[in-house]
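Crash report, auto-generated. Payload:
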Amino acid sequence: MKNSSFKIDGRVCTAETGSNLIEAAKQNGIFIPTLCHFKHLDPLGTCRVCTVKLNGRDIAGCTVRVADGMEIEVNTPELLDTRKAIIEMMFVEGNHFCPSCEKSGDCQMQNLGYETGIKYTRFPHLFIDRITDARPERIVVNQNRCIKCKRCIEEVKTFDGYKVFYSINKGNKTLVSIDYEQEAKLSELQAVRAMHICPTGSILVKGKSFSKPFGDRQFDAITEEKSMSLNPVKKQRATTKKKIVATTSLAGCFGCHMSMLDIDLGILDLFEVIEFNKTPITDIKNFTKHCDIGLIEGGCSNTQNIEVLREFRKNCDILVSVGECAIWGGLPAMRNTFSLEECLRESYLDSMTSEENETIIPNHEDIPKILNNVYANHEIVKIDYHIPGCPPDANYIWNVVKNILFQEEYSIAHPKYKYD
Amino acid sequence: MKRTGLLNKLWEFQNKFGYISDNAIAQIAQKLSVSKIEIEGVVSFYHFFHRQPTGKYIIYLNNSIVAEFKGFQEIKAAFEKETGCTFGCYGENPLFTLFETSCIGLSDQEPAALINFFPFTNLTPEKVKTIIQQLKNGNSLRFISSNPTSKIQYLPPEDKTIFYRKYEMGIALKKLKNHTPDEVLNLISAANLEGRGGAFFPTAKKWKSSKESSTSKKYIICNADEGEPGTFKDKSLLNNLSGLVIEGMIVAAYISGAANGFIYLRAEYMYLLEKIENTLREFQENNLLGNDILGIPKFNFNIQIQVGAGAYICGEESALIESLEGKRGEARIKKYYPTEYGYLGCSTIVNNVETFAMAARIIELGIHFISTIGTKESKGTKVLSISGDVAKPGIYEIEWGMTVKEILHLCQATSPHFVQISGPSGICINNTEFDRKICKEDLICAGSIMVFNNFRSITKILENYTKFFKEESCGVCTPCRAGNQILHEKIKKIKKGICTSKDLEEIKEWGKIIKLTSRCGLGQFSANTLIMALDKFEGYFNQKIIKTNENLNVEFDMEAAVYNYDSLIKDTQ
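Recovered output after restart:
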């Protein structure tokens, strides 16, 4: 065994010659994020999240075998952004509804989203209809969440050596599909292992996906020093002019507003520095003055949502999307993979509770029109900040607001930063 | 049955039954001892394999950009009208099934279609009507199909023509006998031959690497999977000079010591199969293939033809090798060159059709002849396929160093505005660049030039390209698979007229990310033209974007967003 000496971001590192760069970097205390790389597997090189620069050229880190004299860049601003972009691509390509996902908290992709600080995706969500296949014996394959990393293809085999998963189709229609016959041969242990290998929630085992409760999962761990309480602000701010805040809930569930109220008595402190204008919290219906900041919950599902949002844009200096629905449509956007017609028929004409032979979808000129899709707020107006979470934690929301309004120091603790 | 025979086996089923049934998949899977999904995965990768019964005649209509401008929509409608079928739908008619397909290498004769892989070119709605009628009457395809031969429009003076000069069998090979493999390699090296598929990798370096490799077996592969839209020069070479190409392969085998070769022929060129097979047979009969070729002891070499099954990516050498191995044509990670680890793990030389033809001519004509032609860095001539808004589309053999202007003059381009060099994954140029020379020093060209005049919509061109890449990505790596879909969304925005300068900036930024992080050439070059066009046709795009931005509202197509609702309410009243 020979060792090689190479440089990562200018730091001299050593590792066994020919070893995988991801592993070699890890040995030297440098983390290169990846989703497809899996221990002994021959580099798959599919996810491209581990993109680094080798002697100035971009390359997937998992495909590099270390050798003497290599100059590797990992954490330059450009590369950090590139890697973030690739994870964002995965989020928009699939339909990743973290709040309703069984794997949430155990999902490596979600965790990398946190690690790379994705608040919203720069790319438009594609909302392609994908199937969830529950026909296999033990496994449920949810195509909405698959990132085609191929780990399962290479790793999950029956005792007699048959592959259980394989890619089908090509181009934008590529899927990782399952072989029912082979799947039936898997033992429960093998099936559970398949679920664990999957870096997202695409492979689930029936009856096993909730074996660990939310909150206790791999990436949920809250360490004491990381969590922070709401700073008392009244002392410093009593003299300054109160800032004016407006809030609204568009196509959301009001959960984010409930969360805003979750600061309990802290709201009294808050009132020392802010004043509410149009908001459901005070029930002020219309803007009476120009506001410093507007908090928007929910995305745009109908024409009224758009109108309200545009009104907020006009009346607020700063607009903040609060929560998943505001940021990219969230749960209401689940309908984006279906046509509007299907949705309305299902709700009003063909549902179990609709009248026999019902033909009319409720409509009136006073009722807002329903849009063909649920849109993220930043697709309609300029949004200045995004606070992810479903809902975001109360302290987190208000800390961010105060940080924006008063330039107060506030760094987001990882455990507060959630998509679910 | 071996895994490497999978594609041929699938073709057998496809040709015999018109589709590949569950039963067929189960049968094959059992024979190969793999799971059914693995075979399914291979079948579904190639778009000429079908999983549902098709009609007696499968019609593939080309939807490349050149076709689109020459009346693709009209022809599509005509086919649908005459057959009563819908494109992309199965089981509508026992006689016909219709599909769109990407470029079929007949850009000089568009609109064109393949019917059971017989070519039908220069289609008009009337012609479509006649064809369908004839097929209904049971006429033989062989007799009613068109001649796919591309017209050779221009050759340099005789003393400078390299490819399209007189050819007789063995013309290059007979010179082999007097040289050792090393000497031949030196000749190739001295002629500065570089891969004509588009990568321009030094051929001698590739061959030398294979020669020095110590794998037990070695292979020579001729890449005749000419899928780049607008390219048909390899088709022309195989059609006119298949012997020359084969000689080139034999030269490569002589150098590297390979005993087996493949011609990976794209299925779109199935009509050339017979011709090439005949040439191979003649070579065998004349002891130019087989054992002890040319009487040189132990110089054994045989060539097989593998027909592809419809996948652009298989033109990428490592994807081609995967395909040849009976797998999905997914590009390998760039850990090894194929000359180190290629077909079945053995050292493999993969070269383009034109490269082999050129190699043979170098041996035949000698280094002195070649080195007087071309520019300092690009020696010899280049075969170009020219199509689009030109009066004389077809094949042009040009001396390296000819300017774009001269070429446009030769092909009688009418008000050229947007010229695509080397196909969608190449580059586009505007009219300020027409003085550029086609050669390595300036503007390298893989073999396709598509000319568009100033009446053609640039957005349409770019949309066609992006759609092509989106569908033809092998789907393995995220940036190429997802990225090209995302870019397509952006282009839709331009089309809708709700695009801002920010959108254009984003296209450039996002395109760059796709370019830097993709696994193979497809993704690395797919966004190229798009990014370039934004700068080179700035004026055009400036007119496309919306400049006002009142109240920080983002451009939003409200009309489109409520259209579905309005029409549904109207329908259900």
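Post-recovery validation: Residues 83 and 96 of chain B are 7 Å apart (CA to CA).
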